[in-house]
Amino acid sequence: MYIRQNQRNLNSAQKKRFTAAVLELKRNGTYDELVRTHGKYFVPDKDSKLRVGHMSPSFFPWHRRYLLQFERLLQGVDPGVSVPYWDWTTDSSPVSSLWAEDFLGGTGREKDRRVMTGPFAYEKGNWEITVGVTDARFLTRNLGRPQNPIALPTAAELQWALDDPAYDTAPWDSTAKGGGFRNKLEGWAAPKSERWRNHNKVHQWIGGHMTGGTAPNDPAFWLHHAFVDLLWDRWQLKHPASGYLPSAPLELGDLQRGRVISLDEPMPPWNITPRDMLSHQGVYRYE
User: Looking at residue 282, which CATH number applies to its domain?
Assistant: First the structure.
């Protein structure tokens, strides 16, 4: 079993090993395959197709399996590497440690949002964007969106999601009015005065490539989602009597039937069910 650490506790050697392994996955082509996978399964709930990665109950187990795939690839390069997590309720500034020159690099320059610092700057010659809807070949960010400021989620916003004892509620999409932990943490269940909460708000705060279906083009994606994975753990500990919903396939006639993954249905592109992903005990733990 290995440990996923808070990124703020990594030493310089650990940061270097992580970024070196990520760069090697980019060099050998497997990183961009991962980006394509996320783009393929980013299906909005207005679409009639199966939703497995987003706007659906399988948001947590799907991303847990996706992070594990990334982590195993990293460990194939360097067995001592794991995915760090970023607690955005505490490290909430554009000058927090993860945005330093020796780790993920900082925000983009004003004129075109191009990231100019750190190992993923285009000028270094190792990080060309090849997957997505933009023509820009360089990584883009706009931390905090200075021209229209946005703040990272607060501890109170996060607690609002963690306090909900229901895992998810019908109609199992971004419009679920009854609340539910999944929708609140994913961030669609925001008041009308706000457009984003929690997970979604973090994507918007980073800006640039993080705002679309090919968000993993920015390595910050993995640190963000490792924290989301940790938050699922916290919710499970807080609500031991609550479990994944829906527990069974939806009834015939339900408009969401065939579009939502229930507890024991396989999640593409893997033959893995949400039940298989309810725990990571024996694989990794958070520190």
Answer: 1.10.1280.10
